[in-house]
Write a structure and sequence with these properties.
Layout: H1 4-12, H2 20-26, E1 31-35, E2 38-41, E3 46-49, H3 52-55, H4 64-76, H5 89-101, E4 108-112, H6 115-132, E5 140-144, H7 153-158, E6 175-178, H8 183-186, H9 193-211, E7 216-221, H10 237-247, E8 251-255, H11 269-272, E9 279-282, E10 294-298, H12 300-313, H13 326-341, H14 344-361, E11 368-374, E12 377-382, H15 398-408, E13 411-412, E14 414-416, E15 420-423, H16 431-452
Parallel strand pairs: 3-13, 5-6, 5-7, 7-8, 8-9
Antiparallel strand pairs: 1-2, 2-3, 4-10, 9-10, 11-12, 12-15, 14-15
Helix pairs in contact: 4-13, 5-13, 6-12, 9-10, 14-16, 15-16
The structure holds pyridoxal-5'-phosphate (PLP).
The site of pyridoxal-5'-phosphate has 16 residues, from helix 3 and helix 6.
Enzyme class: transferase
Family: Belongs to the class-III pyridoxal-phosphate-dependent aminotransferase family.
GO molecular function, one term: pyridoxal phosphate binding
Amino acid sequence: MLSNLATRDVETLIHPYTQLAAFRETGPLILERGEGVWVYDTEGKPYLEGMAGLWCTSLGYSNRELAEAAYEQMLKLPFQHLFSGRSHDPAIELAEKLKEIAPVPVSKVFFTSSGSEANDSQVKLVWYYNNARGRPQKKKIIARLKGYHGVTVASASLTGLPANHTDFDLPIANILHTSCPHHYRFAHEGESEEEFSTRLAAELEEQILREGPDTVAAFIAEPVMGAGGAVVPPAGYFPKIQAVLDRYDVLMIADEVICGFGRLGEMFGSTALDIRPDSISAAKAITSAYAPLGAVMLNEDMYQAMLDESRKIGVFGHGFTYSGHPVSCAVAIKTLEIYQREDIVGKVRARAPHFQNRVTALEQHPLIGESRGMGLIAGMEIVADKATKRQYDPKKGVAAKTVTFAQEEGLIVRSLAGDRIALCPPLIITEEEIDALFDRLERALDKTLDWVT
Ligand code: PLP
């Protein structure tokens, strides 16, 4: 029996990424408030937020400084756009700050309101760049199967997951996909991580040669894949990929929407995994999710090309009403200040070994085929048979069932395609809370085992 509020929800809302038909029976989990790494439902039941919302609430749920930064900016200048050369202090200061902490030299910053908008902008900027450089045929962008880059038309096309394409008539032209770097699932029998990386880089090179290097403009990748399964790349992967891109003058775009701002124990995932991006997308933890904000950080060469294009055609015809929203920028400035002042990246590094020990220990559970992560992110895969890696019938929804059992245990985690479960807690999580997270998850897996057998 659904509560009054739940019934009103079912009758009024379209929920993103929800099985709309089943949802009419189950109804929503309605959350009311949060504190630290905990969120509370309308009955007052606490849940440990094992996913930091959607990989984003890095500083947890009750940070007064962030709320005050937003409030003060709202009182001072709640809105000012950046169109036609208008500007404001928070956008300037934030762009300076991002340039300072970026993992590679960044020339300019373009703001959006989300990760999808940032990646959509990346696609347009790559096309604009090659038109400016007099290479109108160099337009194809290669993304990866199971990569996740958002849901707007171009960014959903970059995303390599069937649910984002099926019956949406995507992907659009000029977007290609290459293999997913998931060693557990896709390596050949006996193939080492290094060998697997070498093979994937060779496959990418063959793909570029097949398409014609003069038609391939860019490659986009998350350092650690998020929504595609929380997958850590195999050893040596990015340097090998990067060498191929360099040979054919293909830009590297790092999608740092999840990994940016400390998640892997470095300020950016690119540093942690040896990526040398020409352009970077960021969002989520840039404001600890207290306000919507995305950013595209471009190198000098891309900026110079935009200048050339502007001299030729005039106005740079791209931008959102909320590009550089002052309230979001003020919150981001405060977020970055807190990261620095409280050495959040150092804290992640200090907590990661304990977190990852508990991740690895999950492979002892009868249901878990692989459990692996980096920093404070991890993915685990439920299998029916560990020896053969055989999976359960997807229709059974085993990982989704684990999520439901975890909820009973007072833990929020996320199930992903392929019976995978992701963990990505707020970066402020303590050692005791890490133990609480894994104790609850283990109980949920035990219940799943009883249910499935
Ligand atoms: N890129 C990555 C790596 C993401 O994980 C996401 C969202 O989860 C996006 C892009 C899209 O961001 P948004 O949902 O803010 O549009």
